[in-house]
Design a protein that fits this description.
heterodimer, A: mainly beta, Methanol Dehydrogenase, Chain A, 4-stranded antiparallel beta sheet, 38 strands, 5% helix, 38% strand, B: Cytochrome Bc1 Complex, Chain D, domain 2, SH3 type barrels, 2 domains
Chain lengths: 533, 190
């Protein structure tokens, strides 16, 4: 009798689970195992390791040339569309310009709800009214807003569940980042490096919105690193944290990159290395305590934010298995670090670099001392937008390659002291592109351990869009001239492209619904979904 | 460009400064605008430049050049057209790329034809041109042999031998009269 009841209970539970699968919650365990459910896209980079890679292979090198548009969804707003959607069991959740948000039937693109943040009139985001996407945990979506709040929305309705203020938007603190959900926490980093904010990375309780910890990226008096700022410069030191980090559950470390010191292009009144600007931070996921850091560009004068997604790979290095982190940095060097302790292992330029000749064995750049920005202007490579930028790279374990969108832009920098005023831009300079050499770009495939360039696909203009790769051996990229492009991941051979009519400012994602693989790219004011006919 | 939190008074100060850079309403160059107009047509300028709906299409439309450019800039553009190339269409969807300019582009077709002109638009796959003959030609790059870009203007440099100082003054005096109409539409680019 007991057995029969157990069987009935088990069967009932099974059917209950099966019946609700299309609306199931996204537990932390599901986020940990995101790689095992490629039908969905559960985090900003698809998985905690930051790969932006999928094992879906219905679309592959043999058929990518047949891709056709399945649907388009118009956000209804203008400006750069930088989101990375989340897809869970047939529902796509995205954010848009001016902190719009929406949920769609992922098979048809039809909206099931829309959300619009009621933003204050006077906001100061440096680079557009952008948002890079949601994080999801349980039945909640988390969105970091331009007025420096973190909000939670109900997945089924878009209803606001809680709303907390993280910082004062009047002083140009803003959020543009897609949050990262880890355990019961929602982690965000602030924007505002062009306005002299004091950067931070925060964690909030997903259930209540209560702040659990804050790591200030410019250390205050008495804290290690404070000595790397002269005078009161630390108070307006910048070091924002505006791109989504990655996470190693075994080490329980969150890896979060930081941006430029403020003012970005005048260093005369912020003597020192300016920690932790332009750095990789390894933070204890439970406490936010700093386990290690590595600074890519000390005392930066050229706006070389390190805000590129840190990619976590395990590989043999000098004869032994090692937990590594790789990053193609905005400053023009490709880096390999040991992610257990932050030890510098290797760096190599992946294009023309003039600000430094190389990275020394101690991990410090050998800076070209003839180049500091002068009032009359100095040509420096890469330019202020970097050899690459925030747009995501993709790591493909099948090829062992890191796919990175790159720019050839060099800029003429001028520099001058500037008085800080809260809420006003704080750059200490202007910079203009080299007027003679129009910058171009490329989607490059770099060996993930040596940084060697395996192939390069030319972009006519400097890019703003990142990359996605799949086990179908396809790399998807988007250029600034409106092309969404599929390349052979091994060779860079051009498989397919479509003209979408506006610069691409994000990277693609892929998912599967009812046996069909979709690839989705934001472009202009719309999301476009492609699949095989 | 980052958004600014300027006070209204500061914004007006910046506007005043920018306006101080604009060309003066009175001709900075003492020349005969009537003679300059004749010269504009006889020296070949109008073959490539349109003024108020008349003229060529290869170079920038000059209907508002007197309001937009200083005399010094115009003189430099006539004597040394390669020095600073004018900008072509600005793409409102692309915030960070550098727009195309009036450089020289030569497409070598599969059968060896050399088509020279200005690229009105271009990307990795295609190019849209205004040829020297002022016709529109569009190419798929995979179908042509070569696309050659040169940072030089198709406009000839008018040296003192070709255009004496007095003629230059007359021509610039005429160009300074070109200020469009109050309701001139703004074309993308300049």
């Amino acid at each position: 009798m007991k057995i029969n009841r157990l069987v009935i209970w088990l069967l009932g539970s099974f059917f209950l689970l099966a019946g609700t699968h299309s609306q199931s919650q996204v537990s932390y365990e599901r986020l940990l195992g995101a790689a095992q459910e490629p039908k969905n896209w559960l985090t900003y980079s698809g998985r905690y390791s930051g790969w932006r890679y999928s094992t879906l292979n219905q679309i592959n090198t043999s058929n990518a040339s047949h891709l056709t548009m399945e649907w388009a969804f118009q956000v209804g707003d203008l400006g750069q569309f930088e989101t990375t959607p989340i897809v869970v069991d047939g529902v796509l959740y995205g954010t848009g310009q001016n902190d719009r948000a929406f949920a769609l039937d992922a098979r048809t693109g039809r909206a099931i709800w829309r959300y619009q943040r009621n933003l204050p009139d006077k906001l100061q985001p440096c680079c557009g009214m952008v948002n890079r996407g949601f994080a999801i945990l349980g039945d909640r979506l988390f969105m970091a807003t331009l007025d420096a709040h973190l909000i939670a929305l109900d997945t089924k309705t878009g209803n606001l569940l809680w709303d907390v203020s993280a910082a004062d938007y009047h002083k140009a603190y803003t959020f543009t980042v897609a949050p990262l959900a880890v355990k019961n926490e929602v982690i965000v980093g602030v924007s505002g490096g062009e306005y002299g904010v004091r950067g931070f990375v925060d964690a909030y309780d997903a259930a209540t919105g209560r702040r659990l910890w804050r790591f200030e990226t410019v250390p205050g008096p008495g804290k290690p690193g404070h000595e790397t700022w002269t005078g009161d410069s630390w108070k307006t030191g910048g070091a924002p944290a505006w791109i989504t980090g990655t996470y190693d559950p075994d080490l329980n470390l969150i890896y979060w990159p930081t941006g430029n010191p403020s003012p970005s292009n005048y260093g005369g009144e912020r003597g020192g290395d300016n920690l932790y600007s332009n750095s990789m931070l390894a933070l204890d996921a439970d406490t936010g305590k700093l386990k290690w850091f590595y600074q890519f560009t000390p005392h930066d004068l050229y706006d070389y934010d390190a805000t590129q997604v840190p990619v976590l790979i395990d590989a043999e290095w000098e004869g032994r298995a090692r937990k590594l982190m790789i990053q193609a940095n905005r400053n023009g060097f490709f880096y390999v670090l040991d992610r257990t302790d932050g030890k510098f292992l290797f760096a190599k330029a992946f294009g023309t670099v003039t600000w430094a000749s190389s990275i020394g064995k101690d991990g410090k750049p050998i800076v070209n001392t003839s180049l500091p920005a002068k009032p009359e202007g100095t040509r420096v490579c890469p330019g202020a937008l970097g050899m690459t930028n925030w747009y995501s790279p993709s790591y493909n374990p099948d090829t062992g390659l890191l796919y990175v969108a790159t720019s050839t832009e060099c800029d003429i920098f001028t520099s001058a002291p500037q008085k800080y005023r809260a809420g006003h831009d704080f750059l200490g300079s202007v910079y203009v592109p080299d007027p003679v050499e129009r910058p171009t770009g490329a989607l490059k495939a770099l060996d993930a351990l040596t940084g060697d360039e395996k192939w390069s696909f030319p972009y006519f203009s400097n890019p703003n869009g990142g990359a996605l790769s799949t086990s179908g051996s396809v790399v998807f990229g988007g250029d600034s001239d409106g092309n969404f492009i599929a390349l052979d991941a091994k060779t860079g051979h051009d498989l397919w492209h479509v003209q979408l009519g506006a610069a691409v400012y994000s990277a693609a994602i892929t998912f599967e619904v009812e046996g069909k693989q979709y690839v989705v790219i934001p472009c202009g004011s719309a999301l476009f979904a492609f699949a095989l006919p | 460009m980052p958004a600014n939190g300027f006070e209204d008074s500061e914004i007006w100060a910046i506007i005043a400064y920018l306006r101080s850079l604009a060309p003066q309403k009175q001709a900075a160059v003492a020349g005969d605008a009537g003679k300059g107009k004749q010269l504009f047509e006889s020296a070949g300028c109008s073959k490539c430049h349109m003024v108020n709906g008349n003229g060529g299409r290869l170079g920038p439309d000059l209907s508002r050049v007197g309001a937009a450019r200083s005399a010094a800039y115009m003189i430099e553009s006539i004597r040394e057209p390669d020095k600073e190339l004018s900008t072509l269409m600005l793409d409102p969807n692309n915030h960070y790329s550098v727009p195309l300019s009036y450089g020289t582009v030569t497409v070598v077709t599969a059968d060896g034809e050399r088509v020279q002109g200005v690229a009105l638009n271009e990307d990795t796959y295609t190019i849209q041109m205004m040829t020297e003959e002022q016709s529109l030609r569009f190419f798929q790059k995979k179908e042509v042999k070569e696309v050659i870009h040169e940072h030089k203007s198709l406009m000839p440099a008018y040296s003192e031998e070709a255009l004496g100082p007095a003629q230059l003054r007359d021509l610039v005096a005429y160009l300074e009269t070109l200020r469009g109409s109050a309701n001139s539409d703004a074309k993308e680019g300049r």
